[in-house]
Amino acid sequence: MRNREFVSLWFVGGALNTVRWLEMLAVSVAVFEITESPFAVAMMVIVRFLPLALVGALTGALAERINRRVALFTSMLAVGAASFWFGVMAQNGHVTLWLLTASALLNGLLWAFDNPVRRTLYADVVAPVQLGSAMTLDTVTSNGTRFLGPILGGLFLEYAGIHGVFFLGSLLYVIATLVTLFGTRVAGSQQSGGGLSVFSALWNGFQLLRQERTLQGLMAVTVVWNVWGFPFFSMIPVMGKQTLGLTPLPIGVLMSAEGMGALSGALLILAFAELRHYRYLYTYGTLLFLFMAFAFSQVESFLPAAGFLFLAGIGAGFFSAMQGALVMLCTPVEARGRMMGVLSVCIGLSTVGFLHIGLLGQWFGAELAIVICTLEGFLALLLVCRLWPEVLAPQTLP
Are 362 and 37 within 8 A, CB to CB? Predict the structure, then answer.
């Protein structure tokens, strides 16, 4: 915490994740109010994740050849300007599916840079022995914004409208840009391309993944989380409105219960977890999340729903705190950018999961869609543990 550049990058992560979660909730609620379709809500989240699947690996290879600090503040400034324009359009009454889709897509493009650009900057400014704690602190902030973001999104959507959400997002982007510009100097200047072209480095990253069973297992758990776990979030606003009869602000509070649990899980790891426990927490956190998502689908009142979401959040906190740290710790220094890009692709496969749960929600309702997805997720996670027992082995320093 005495490292100025780390604190600056940590703050930027908090700002970006706040925008991400408040906008995800607000756009989902706005889309459902326009269409009354669970499938349309899921499709909007698919649009947000599509850039990770399509260009995540490419941004990872590219990140090893550019000044990542410059790339970070330039992209945030551009998205902040676009968010302000979306706010002006919405304030003038032009709230359409096209506008909401454009905002989700642009936010997704910035997200595609998060793992290979922003998060790899931590390795530039902290010692290797501090990397696990640095990544966990970043996840603490991310999970904290999963609590704060939905509340802000619900509050602004209910009392200021969707244009208020966009204006708040624009302000946070500009603040994050200024902090990056004036709070960092060394971060991002190191380049590790090693003379390879971007596409050669991209191929090299997938070759490394094919050779390393531990990385394969870690990526497989990420796929389980993003195909059968994380898409569950798109059904929370639907259940909040249809099953529980809530308005936007209480829906935001409901979603924030999961964020509070995720923050608690990450703080528990920061306080008590040892390096050798990292893989256990990663895998069993995914299992806990799936179990509590299943339990949430069976409730019909606010308090039990919030309780199950809080416990699901603890599992999510374990998973998310370990994800980036494990990939960084299990990858050679010169290949971290491209491997974090591969991780972005695995995260981007959530587009398949959102399409899956969206169709199930449209056909059978949100409750049954969650049940089917979580049961499939249980089976997939058991298969991963059987094929890659390395995901339950003790973690060591590289």
Answer: yes
Is the pLDDT score of 385 beyond 70?
A: yes
Q: Most distant CA pair in the chain: distance in Å?
A: 59
Nearest to 305 by CA among 257, 237, 377: 257
C-alpha separations of 280 from 212, 272, 318 in Å: 19, 14, 9
CATH of domain 4-183+198-392: 1.20.1250.20
CA distances from 336 to 10, 89, 93, 107 (A): 19, 40, 45, 23
**Is the sign of the CA dihedral 110, 197, 341, 183 positive or negative?**
negative
What is the rounded CA–CA span in Å between residue 166 and residue 86?
6
Please give the average per-residue pLDDT across 188-202, as a whole number. Answer: 57
Decide: pTM greater than 0.85: no
Question: What is the reported pLDDT for 173?
Answer: 93
| CA–CA distance, 13 with 164 (Å, rounded to integer) | 21
Q: What is the CA radius of gyration of the chain?
A: 20
CA distance linking residue 341 with residue 115, whole number of Å? 7
Domain boundaries, given as residue ranges, for the chain: 4-183+198-392
Which structure tokens are listed for 315? 């599992």
